[in-house]
């Protein structure tokens, strides 16, 4: 039987682009691996450098990781598994990797007696995953431009994201979402928007969450990637005996020169199943 792998692209690309980005890597893996690439539901700007080589549409799984949008993204993954699954593994790049980790954690938390969504996961250049629930993660609202916050999202919840995880002033927020829920009467020159009670950002982090991914995981990231420290912290959400790590010399990419080493990491995890 084929070993089926669901593939989730990064923000600002699409299923076809992710297939092209991984074609050399996949050519080195066993022929009985079946790769299933799907598109994210929302349009967005092209990822840096992508538009010069690939045409639109440029898609993402969510424009910003609010609890509501994470819930919708999880529902999409559940629907794909129901209609096109089962899958042995999931492989995600960047936002797709973060979504995969978040969906796995949700299923594991909510349905601990059932088999996991996937038997293993491959995370490539992953940012930290976000939760759909207020019960987990760091309350990261103020890092996404929300103000007038009246206390944490839950009693005792940390509201401080480690400084080394702040990659840029806007963090993961798009321009469209910066203005989401803002009143039309507000001064658009203001850099922040007033808090809408239904908008929450809950970032999973090993320092505040006891939950860990209980499946074999492969972690691939580059030394020059600005999301490298996110990827390294995702590693800490996975037990040492279940994780395989490969760090290459590049950036936010899947370098062809590292394909053999990446394949070795993947095959190590597969052999553990």
Could you describe the 3D structure shown?
It contains 7 helices and 13 strands. It has 273 residues and is an alpha/beta fold. The strands form 4 sheets. It has a 6-stranded parallel β-sheet with strand order 2-1-5-6-12-13, with helices on both faces. Strand 12 (217-222), helix 6 and strand 13 (243-248) form a beta-alpha-beta unit. Helix 3 crosses helix 4. The model is unreliable at 172-195 (pLDDT under 50).
Shape: globular
* Distance from first to last alpha carbon: 15 Å
Number of distinct beta strands: 13
Structural class category: alpha/beta
SSE succession: EHHEEEHEHEEEEHEEEHEH
Rg (C-alpha, Å): 18 Å
Tell me roughly what share of residues is in helical segments.
25-40%
Summarize the biggest pleated sheet: 6 strands, parallel
